Amino acid sequence: MKKYIHKLIYGKLYWKIGKFHRFCRSIGIPFCTGAEGPCFRIGKRRRRNTAYVNDEDNWVFQCDKCFKREQEYWKDMWHEYYSQIM
After folding, report:
1. Which of 15, 21, 41, 46 sits between 20 and 30 A of 63, alpha carbons compared?
2. How far apart are CA 42 and CA 33, in angstroms?
3. Distance linking the first and last C-alpha atoms of the chain
4. What is the largest CA-CA distance in the chain?
5. What confidence tens digit (pLDDT) does each residue in 33-79 have?
6. Can you spell out the DSSP letters for the chain?
7. Is 63 exposed, middle or buried (CB count within 10 Å of its CB: 0-12, 13-18, 19+)?
8. pLDDT value, residue 4
């Protein structure tokens, strides 16, 4: 029962934090979009290591720490992709 209540409270809190984060971004506060969830550091627009047809999807608004995680993720994804086609 205690675990369930903890998960319920954490889930609602995480939802509220996400809603607040989206609100701040909508009014122009340059918060990072985060690599693994909302991040409240100041970010900047950066080019991902992706090749989407819609060029806007190739860009993210992230801080240095989150962008480093994002780059590592895409490096692993491209490595896996190229290892399967060769």
Report:
1. 15
2. 9
3. 51
4. 51
5. 888 877 888 888 899 988 889 998 899 889 999 999 999 999 999 99
6. -HHHHHHHHHHHHHHHHHHHHHHHHHTT--B---SSS---SB-EEEE-S---SSGGGGEEEE-HHHHHHHHHHHHHHHHHHHHHH-
7. buried
8. 62
